[in-house]
Amino acid sequence: MTTTGARPGRWAGTRLSAEWVRLPPRDLRLARGGSPNSGDELAVGGSQGHEVSAADVRAQAVYRFLSEELALGEGRAAKVIKQFPRVLGFFVETLRLKVGYLVQDMGLRRAAAVKVITGCPQVLGYSMENNIEPTLQYLEDGMGLGRDGAVKVIAKFPSVLSFSVENNLKPTVRYLAGDVGLGKEGAAKVITGFPSVLGMGVENNIAPKVRYLAEEVGLGRDGAVKVITGLPSVLGLSVDDNLAPKVRFLAEEAGAGREGAANIILQYPKLLSYSIELNLRPKLHFLWEKFPGSTGVQAMRLAAHSLAGKLMPRVRLLERHGMAGRFAASTTAKCTTATFCEKVGLAIEEYDGEVEVCKREHNEMYPSPEWPAAAGEAGDLAARVKDDAIASNKAGRAKRPRKHAPS
To answer: Which of 11, 203, 301, 388 lies at 20 to 30 Å from 27 by C-alpha?
Structure first.
């Protein structure tokens, strides 16, 4: 391990070798003096007679706390250290108190607290009184989420703890509630459904998407509000890469036209989160092939139903039992499994078996399956938006200064 002017409690400039993180020095040993089980006081010196610095000893105690006591394992512990090197200079007891606060005072489950730490390691350096509690209080009282809602937001989007209440959170909430027209309750619903929006800049990120929906798609303000409340994560989708191509697909390839595309989006906002290549286009062509009289608009109204989990197996079973064309596409898709089996005279085992066959075939045909939810792109949306949100926050708006925990 190499340090640059590092002293105990001053680890901002520490550089760790991959070998140190993967296999910590064996000659560092806990000296069980001081408070029992604190893990903070360590002996120096090694089995081969060389001296080990107090900073190295403290870093080893922190590493063991992360990897063993928090059960992060070597990989996740290394990531935490890489993202927040200063943690190596903290007393283990200080870290225990911070984790205890997250679990006992905030009400996070231990697994959720670990998720917060791995998602935003800097939280280990924040002051509970000056940083974490004000954020929690604003989410709980200022936004009206209550304790449970606030904790859910933090668990889903740990980086919210790194944003300033005054400079980041309040402006976003004011924009959603007032300018967009969601109202306080509507804004709270959107934020609970898509907490990453709290880290996105208003002018350069959120507002352009709202304007696109209202003006270019033609939804108007009320329609945009309906779509945003129905699919909060729409605010994390790129206009150029996600929204505009799907609107064009609905208007042109599905033949809905501009007004028809707007109506489909109003009725089924989740279509905007689906992949064209893996979800919308395969369903459109399948339904056109199996139900020749159906229009593109009718097909897209069934796009929320899984192709391999519902549409494909049901059509095949109807064909196998000589009932092809007996039911309309909407009836085939929308009736319950029990009703479908009763109408066709199927045992549930035969139905389930066909579903599994279709899933396997679908997975071979399309590398990115849509299971368990037929959401296409939505699976990795949160991760992409988190990265974009953090980048936007750093570039566009100042954060409040953070008072770090004593080391």
So the answer is: 11
Reported pTM: 0.71
Beta pairing class for 42-43 and 29-30: antiparallel
Among 149, 142, 182, 195, which Cα is nearest to 165's?
Answer: 142
Q: What ranges in 194-279 are assigned the alpha helix state H?
A: 207-211, 220-230, 244-248, 257-267
pLDDT tens-digit readout, 282-311 = 999 999 999 988 889 989 989 889 999 999
Domain membership flag for residue 322:
yes
Name the domain boundary from 90, 106, 139: 90
pLDDT tens-digit map of 234-247: 999 999 999 999 99
What phi-psi label fits residue 107: left (phi over 0), alpha (psi between -120 and 50 degrees) or beta?
left
Q: Which domain holds residue 294?
A: 275-374
Q: Into how many domains does the chain fold?
A: 2
Last residue of a domain, one of 36, 71, 90: 90
What does the CA dihedral 114, 116, 117, 121 come to, rounded to 10 degrees?
A: 170
User: What's the rounded Cα separation, in Å, for the pair 358 and 303?
Assistant: 17
The distance from CA 404 to its chain's CA centroid, rounded to whole angstroms, is 26
